[in-house]
Design goal:
Two copies of one chain form a homodimer.
Chain A (H helix, E strand, L loop, with lengths): L12 H19 L4 E2 L1 H8 L3 H11 L10 E2 H11 L6 E6 L3 H8 L8 E8 L8 E2 L2 E5 L3 H8 L3 E4 L3 H13 L4 E4 L12 E4 L2 H16 L1
Parallel strand pairs in A: 3-4, 3-7, 4-6, 7-8, 8-9
Antiparallel strand pairs in A: 1-2, 5-6
Helix pairs in contact in A: 1-4, 2-3, 6-7
Chain A binds a DNA duplex (24 and 24 nucleotides) through helix 3.
DNA sequence: TAGATTGTTAATCGATTAACAATC
DNA sequence: TAGATTGTTAATCGATTAACAATC
């Protein structure tokens, strides 16, 4: 739902989304002592076509692969991490410290992708001042002010659908550049803001439809 | 990562994933008393092209739209709900009652999409026998047995990456047809099983890459 | 009627795939 | 060398978009 992005990168969205899968597997191989990898081996593991993996590797690798040998595992991992921003650190805030928001605050895995959630916001008085996953919860009224002061670039929205647009507006007022939206609602934003939707209903749509097709 | 699905429906994956957005908005309009909707109006709201919404509506609607008037809101909602399986009830189990799993167990929104999580599984002794969101937690050893007995078709995986494949195998042994995988790892499955990946890293890849392109 | 919106047919665009020469 | 794997160039395929006649 967010194609109007003038900052589209040279690598396709589809390829970009495959990278974390490759990366995870490459790290596993590296730990197993595998020093070079070839596209056919990776393709087989993921049940993808060789040529697709080859193109993906070519798109991400700064060093050309060696015929017969493939790519140096370490270098490929480094290039992918670079592409995925793992070596940067981007500060983020999260709005909506409910059950989903709380789960994300407790989850430690974002650090590996260069995302550092530094604060959470909510409107429920009983949550304010508390901490979840070591992150303090502030009142949503101070959202844009704090984002602006701390130069936050990423906002994570885990509030109910009805409040999503309001929270979104406050984030943008605070200078947020990219929004990760878990609320099941379309957000209205200026063209220069990236909205990445994580809509579980969209995902369920595929599951349900498949079951209907298959079994009725 | 899951193209080899022989049960592909007539409607494209992309269109299917747009449906929940349309549906949510249509319901909102309906509550506001709007009795008919046209593709151009919806397109404008979502910043999509008119023709794309028109095609999507044509793909889902059982009744043709009326030139000048558009579609009857109620009928369109009904057709979309039908397509998305909202009128069915599919039983599901969830494996991994940690923070993310717990959040999903507590979330009430899946019922609207015909998904009914009837039980949860974990290996941590302190969790077994307890309830989260009204769902009882059983030991993972009984996963395939219970799935088989209760004819469960959907499995939700929220265990750590290392355990994902094991849990997946047990689900398939228990007769599960579709898997919603939140673990950041590729699952190896037979071709007739649908795996829908909800990989947050894949999502973050887009966000991070955008920020790098834009601001370095 | 005039005009908005529809459905249909054809064009475009980009991702995937195929074919093959280059190379270690 | 022979053969596996690479990078390159061209073909295919499907989603999106454009153009336009049909219709209320």
């Amino acid at each position: 739902m967010d194609k109007n992005n003038p900052y589209a990168s040279l690598i396709s969205v589809q390829a970009l989304q495959r990278m974390p899968y490759y990366l995870e597997y490459l790290k596993k191989l590296k730990n197993g002592g595998v020093e070079t990898v070839s596209a056919p081996v990776i393709a087989k593991h993921f049940k993808l076509k060789e040529i697709q993996v080859r193109k993906d590797f070519a798109a991400v690798s700064t060093i050309k692969g060696k015929p017969r040998a493939g790519f140096v595992t370490d270098e490929l991992i480094y290039n992918m991490e670079e592409l995925l921003g793992c070596h940067n650190v981007n500060k983020a805030v999260l709005a909506g410290a409910g059950s989903l928001g709380g789960a994300l605050l407790s989850y430690g895995g974002f650090a590996a992708y260069g995302i550092d959630i530094i604060a959470a916001f909510d409107i429920r008085e009983d949550l304010i001042g508390k901490e979840i996953g070591g992150k303090k919860i502030f009142h949503a009224d101070s959202l844009s002010e704090i984002c602006g002061k701390l130069k936050i670039r990423i906002g994570i929205i885990t509030v109910p659908a009805e409040q999503a647009q309001t929270v979104c507006d406050r984030m943008i007022a605070g200078g947020i550049q990219a929004i990760w939206n878990f609320a099941p609602r379309h957000l209205n934003t200026p063209d220069n803001i990236l909205v990445q939707n994580e809509n579980m209903a969209s995902s369920l749509a595929l599951l349900s439809n498949h079951l209907i097709e298959k079994l009725g």
